[in-house]
Amino acid sequence: MLLRRNKFKLRQNKDFFNQARRKESYFFRLYYLFDHHLETIKLTVIVPKKKLKQAVLRNKSKRWLKEIFAQWLKLQKQPLPVYLVIYLKQDFSTKQKKQVKNELVQLLGRFLINNNQ
Q: Are 49 and 89 in contact (CB under 8 A)?
């Protein structure tokens, strides 16, 4: 099944999570699904209300994770045509930010190594 850009809505398309492959770490769950009609990576970050109650903290976490992803993406030679969903599994404090950043970069690296044949 090929997902078109205008039809790709996570809330409406539960098949994505059934079809997507998954990698996990302590803080994150990374879902990915290849679509060769894409030119680059499409990213979605999910931070559940159960993990972070305040919207300000959820939004700040999403911005911070997207910033880490953007830095990682700049280092890549050729981005893959893939939908990526980063799901935050565990809350983290400001003291753990360095650990969380390293874990996300390692998780993205494992994804890239396994899928860059």
A: no
> What is the tally of structural domains in the chain?
1
Beta strands in the chain (DSSP E): 21-24, 28-34, 42-46, 82-88
Q: What is the pTM of this model?
A: 0.81
As given in the structure block, the two tokens for residue 46 are 């999910």
Q: What is each CA distance from 73 to 50, 79, 91, 106, 111, in whole angstroms?
A: 29, 7, 24, 13, 13
Q: What is the CATH number of the domain that holds 72?
A: 3.30.230.10
Task: Look up the domain containing 76 and give its range.
Answer: 5-115
- With residue 99 as reference, give the H or E element that holds it: helix 97-115
Strands, sheet with 42-46, edge to edge from the N-terminal-most edge strand: 21-24, 28-34, 82-88, 42-46
Using the predicted structure, report yes or no on whether residue 51 has a pLDDT greater than 60: yes
Q: What is the DSSP letter of 81?
A: S
DSSP state of 37: T
